[in-house]
TrEMBL record:
InterPro entries: DNA_methylase_A-5 (IPR003356), Restrct_endonuc_typeI_TRD_sf (IPR044946), SAM-dependent_MTases_sf (IPR029063), Type-I_RE_MTase_Subunit (IPR052916). Signal peptide: none annotated. The lineage of its organism: Bacteria, Bacillati, Actinomycetota, Actinomycetes, Kitasatosporales. It comes from the Bacteria. One of its GO terms (molecular function) is DNA binding. Keywords: DNA-binding, Endonuclease, Hydrolase, Nuclease, Restriction system. It comes from Streptomyces corchorusii (Streptomyces chibaensis). This is Restriction endonuclease subunit M. Residues 133-170 are annotated as: Disordered. Pfam families: N6_Mtase.
């Protein structure tokens, strides 16, 4: 069923039809029957997707909108925004994954019937998979830590349920006395009130919000006056009737995994990561949900959600700080297998998703962004059979799991935050190793992770390099070392994770148990594995080097020196005035005994390359009158079957190297990676021509035998010519013409995009094409020789500077 309300921008229309933005502008001017804008602005209008699809099909420009593109456009154009739409879609995909027959029955009738049935049906899936309200005594699942709540004191048996925000069912009605009821109403109002509901599950029911406002539940700071003493636990369970008691008639959407606020900071409460969407909310999303169900039938529920999430993240790259899948896998490897795992800054759930699955596994997540917490919960529930507990809230100010003791904590915390709660949390019991300075938010996250570990548990955190050396944090670093909590510091290569221009660190910590503290710390520097340009590091080499060093160190408690790469350092050697933990400052340089000989070999290779460059220098250009060829375009050649045009960006299942746009621009070997997906990857073949579409450069690369078989990366277009009609080198050479690229490019405020279909070629016989192709091939060889000479020259200069400054090379 098509959604008439779904809107699509001109850019979306261009993607639907496989053309550039300029073509859409031309259609609007030239065709009086082109659909009229229904929204947006004068400079960026939006159009009804159904009308656009019908017009494109009528004009013969589109046989059928691909299902994936149609569902994505419905999600991106959802009236409530893409994030609430993604949450609703994830809920339904989880229902389809768990109970497909329930979905088939609910979707058989009208949208109104679907919405009416669906809310209750979702409750039957979301509560078992993502956790329901805490039961008597504050226990859920395996006990107090199972739901991130602590048992209440004697006589206050409903503390767990009431603090958890159990307004619906258990919170208000489960308490036998007035104290239990009032606590349920109060905690539900303050900690998981209507505001959190509106954020987590889209626009709430007006009736619910009206009731909440009438009861004074959204009292803000006034509600906090019920708990004036931050350090008095008895306040949270006082049997005194609360003035913010919720009326018995109040009904809110069922909270899936309701959690309590941290007793140290009730002013910034946690909220359920996900509340079951209401019927009115689902009615608004009904066309999208039906489309998502079709997509799930085609590719699977989990893959459908990953596809839609991936498209949203790709479309909004500046809104999220993501953890690359390779880095998440490395962090999970360092932590080892675990039954209970916590990520207190979960984002989109990449770290928990990287954890190896095992029976009876429990995954705990929290994030300050409610939508991301909900998306993480759904993503993890679709990914494995583990019990998932997720909460929305500021972890440092309002820890959702104060009673949790996890086997492993994985965390990619926000960096350089000054407003992390320094003033409010001065007496927090988590600061076992010292009170972090206002500028040391990362050390607050380190201690939070240690506080949530069981004895002997492991935490792995991604850290900025400054945290290893800032003077304001030296006392905490020293105490972490003295007590054996810090086990390893790993310096990653530049480009491992955002911000990509900084070599980030991994800290591996263990909560000390009764065993003697480890007297040595492992330091690893993987900077040598940085990739060329912006292609990213050599993750296979990084992973092998780090896990091998960590494995040897954990087995023996010591690691023999690996020059330039790793060594274990006695703790006493690090406890100086600076307590500087940067690996590069404690590792010996790589073996340089043959440094002069290596430089001699580099110099010889450079000389040979320069001689080759001289031989390949093009001969003097012969003047010729301007040619007037008949021209055609890449789009016309593709429609005529002279070439096949493909777009990259899908990882598929095969783990093979990915050719990135940066590789094409730099002329280097495939160096990238893509997340695994159900969509088929585009594999390059010798003779293909690959063109980057971003950046404004005139570049086209002919794939050779060495590069063939690589996956085509994002922002690349592949042209596979019919060899009986087109010569690949002729094709690539003419695509590189500056004037050709200029007329086929569109310009935005910050980027230039190439519409490959508009690039032009002269119509020439195949023999004449080959004459031009031979000349273009020779120019390509000359260009590659120049690049190689440049790299060798840089290597020689850097080696000479290093050799002269470290004494391994004599000045003359």
């Amino acid at each position: 069923m098509q959604d008439n309300a779904t809107e699509v921008t001109a850019a979306g229309i261009a993607r639907l039809a496989g053309v550039g933005r300029a073509a859409v502008s031309n259609w609007r001017r030239r065709h009086a029957d082109f659909p009229k804008p229904v929204g947006g602005t004068e400079t960026s209008p939006s159009f009804a997707l159904a009308e656009v699809e019908a017009w494109l099909r009528k004009q013969g420009k589109l046989a059928e909108v691909p299902l994936r593109e149609r569902v994505w456009q419905q999600l991106a154009g959802h009236p409530e925004g893409p994030l609430p739409a993604l949450v609703h879609t994830g809920c339904v995909l989880l229902l389809i994954h768990e109970r497909p027959t329930v979905w088939l029955d609910a979707s058989a009738g009208s949208d109104a019937r679907l919405a009416a049935i669906l809310s209750g049906a979702l409750d039957q899936v979301l509560v078992p998979r993502l956790g329901g309200p805490a039961g008597p005594g504050g226990r859920a699942g395996r006990g107090a830590r199972g739901a991130g709540v602590e048992p209440g004191p004697e006589g206050a048996g409903e503390k767990g349920a009431s603090d958890a925000g159990g307004v619906h069912g258990g919170g208000v009605n489960a308490g036998g006395g007035a104290g239990g009821v009032n606590e349920g109403a109060h905690a539900g109002a303050v900690n998981a009130g209507a505001r959190a509901d509106r954020v987590n599950a889209g626009a709430g029911s007006p009736g619910v919000n009206a009731a909440v406002d009438a009861a004074g539940v959204n009292a803000g700071a006034e509600a906090d006056r019920v708990n004036p003493a931050l350090t008095t636990p008895a306040v949270n369970t006082s049997p005194t009737p609360s003035p913010v008691n919720t009326p018995p008639t109040l009904h809110t959407p069922h909270p899936v995994h309701a959690v309590p606020a941290s007793p140290t900071a009730p002013a910034s409460p946690t909220a359920p990561a996900l509340r079951t969407p209401t019927g009115p909310q689902l009615l608004l999303s009904a066309p999208l949900l039906r489309g998502a169900a079709e997509l799930a039938a085609e590719m699977g529920a989990r893959q459908a959600f990953e596809f839609l999430l991936g498209r949203h993240l790709d479309a909004n790259p500046r809104q999220y700080t993501l953890t690359p899948a390779e880095l998440a896998g490395l962090m999970a490897d360092l932590a080892g297998p675990a039954r209970t795992v916590l990520d207190p800054a979960c984002g989109t759930g990449a770290l928990l998703r990287a954890v190896a699955t095992r029976p009876d596994q429990e995954l705990y997540a929290q994030d300050s962004a409610p939508e991301l917490a909900a998306i993480s919960a759904l993503r993890l529930a679709l990914h494995s059979r583990a019990t998932v507990r997720a909460a929305a809230g500021d972890t440092l100010r309002a820890d959702a799991y104060p009673g949790l003791r996890a086997d492993v904590v994985l965390c990619h915390p926000p960096f350089n935050e000054r407003n992390w709660g320094h003033d409010e949390l001065a007496y927090d019991p988590r600061w076992e190793y010292g009170f972090p300075a206002r500028t040391e938010s990362e050390l607050a996250w380190v201690q939070h992770a240690l506080a949530r570990l069981t004895d002997g548990g492991t935490a792995v955190l991604l850290m900025p390099p400054a945290a290893a050396s800032r003077r304001s944090g030296r006392r905490i670093r020293a105490d972490l070392l003295r007590r054996g909590a810090l086990r390893a510091v790993v310096a990653l290569p530049v480009g491992a994770a955002p911000p990509y221009n900084i070599p980030l660190h991994l800290w591996v910590l263990r909560r000390p148990d009764r065993a003697p503290a480890t007297p040595e710390v492992l330091l690893v520097d993987t900077g040598r594995f940085a990739g060329e340009g912006r292609g990213g590091p050599d993750w296979e080499a990084v992973r092998e080097a780090v896990t091998d060093a960590w494995g040897a160190f954990t087995r023996a408690g010591h690691l023999a020196e690996r020059p330039g790469l790793a060594r274990s350092v006695p703790v006493i050697d690090l406890l100086d005035d600076d307590v500087d933990l940067a690996p590069a400052r404690h590792l010996p340089p790589a073996a340089v005994a043959d440094g002069a000989e290596q430089l001699t070999r580099v110099r010889e290779r450079l000389g040979a390359t320069l001689r080759l460059t001289a031989d390949l220098t093009p001969p003097p250009a012969d003047p010729s009158p301007a040619a007037r060829w008949p021209l055609t375009t890449i789009g016309e050649l593709a429609r005529g079957g002279a070439l096949v045009m493909r777009t990259g960006g899908n990882g598929g299942h095969a783990r093979v190297p990915v050719l990135t746009d940066h590789d094409v621009l730099a002329g280097t070997a495939p160096s990238g990676t893509l997340p695994e997906s159900e969509e088929e990857a585009v594999l390059t073949e010798p003779g293909d021509v690959v063109v980057p579409v971003l950046g404004g450069g005139s570049v086209a690369r002919v794939i050779d035998e060495a590069t063939g078989g690589a996956v085509l990366g994002r922002n690349l277009v592949l042209l596979r010519p019919d060899r009986t009609a087109l010569d690949p080198w002729f094709l690539a050479g003419f695509l590189r013409g500056t004037a050709n690229n200029r007329q086929a490019s569109s310009y935005a405020s910050t980027a230039t995009r190439l519409d490959v279909r508009r690039l032009q070629l002269p119509r020439l016989p195949l023999e004449e094409q080959r004459r031009y192709g031979d000349r273009f091939r020779a120019l390509d060889a000359f260009e590659r020789a120049l690049r190689h000479a440049s790299r060798l020259g840089e290597q020689l200069v850097r080696g000479m500077y290093d050799g002269l400054t470290d004494g391994t090379v004599a000045p003359g």
